[in-house]
Amino acid sequence: MPGFDVPRPRCGHSQDRRVVGGLPVRVKSRRAGVFAAYFDGTPEQVGRIRTWCARATGLDQEAADLVELAVSELVTNAVVHTASGGRYGRVKVTVEVMPGQIVLVGVTDDGPRALRPITVPTLPDHVDDTTPSGRGLRLVAALSEKWWWTGFRGGPLTVWALIDPHRDLAV
């Protein structure tokens, strides 16, 4: 038909934010001091994400270590337990350094895996010492002042952690 434009095919709701070849795709934030990027949802990306977070905070290495550890646990959980770890999966990582060098980090997953039970992040009541997993959120809870999640059950979730990298963890 003359004058009729065929719309371009769409690959989901965020085609323009795909991750290519394992390199992060940076996202421009509306607020100054907020850094965000999309990464492939593979275990190999966790090290790259840790390095990116340390640079984004601008903190010295000792202070950034706490942020890196918490973020790596949250990313690993997203990769293991959600569609982020599937084919073409990705995670979005957000870092904001707030006044007093308090760091707010967020890890957004791609939602639940198909044909798997829908879950939300919760602290387990008991961790079996013989099981190699189940301690990630407990570690995040210990490292952070507060952690929580946003989103809706059955869709993509963002797990947030508010971290004071200068607090004494020995208490």
What structural keywords apply?
single chain, 171 residues, alpha+beta, 6-stranded antiparallel beta sheet, 3 helices, globular, disordered N terminus
Q: Can you characterise this structure?
A:
With 171 residues, the protein is α+β, with helices and mostly antiparallel strands. It has three helices and six strands, in the order E-E-H-H-E-E-H-E-E. The protein has helices at 45-57, 61-81, 136-143, and strands spanning 25-27, 34-40, 90-98, 102-108, 146-151, 157-163. A six-stranded antiparallel beta sheet has the order 1-2-3-4-6-5.
Give the class from helix and strand content and strand pairing.
Answer: alpha+beta
Kindly, what is the distance between the CA atoms of the first and last residues, rounded to a whole number of angstroms? 72 Å
The number of helical segments is: 3
How would you sum up the global shape? globular
Beta-strand percentage? Answer: 15-25%
What's the β-strand tally?
6
- Our Rg estimate from Cα atoms comes to 18 Å
Helix-residue proportion: 10-25%
Report the mean per-residue pLDDT as an integer.
Answer: 83
Largest sheet: 6 strands, antiparallel
- Strand/helix succession: EEHHEEHEE
Strand order of the largest sheet: 1-2-3-4-6-5
Low-confidence stretches: 1-17
Give the topology.
Blueprint: E1 25-27, E2 34-40, H1 45-57, H2 61-81, E3 90-98, E4 102-108, H3 136-143, E5 146-151, E6 157-163
Antiparallel strand pairs: 1-2, 2-3, 3-4, 4-6, 5-6
Helix pairs in contact: 1-2, 2-3
Summarize the structure.
A hairpin with a 6-residue loop joins strand 1 and strand 2. With 171 residues, this protein is α+β, with helices and mostly antiparallel strands. It contains 3 helices and 6 strands.
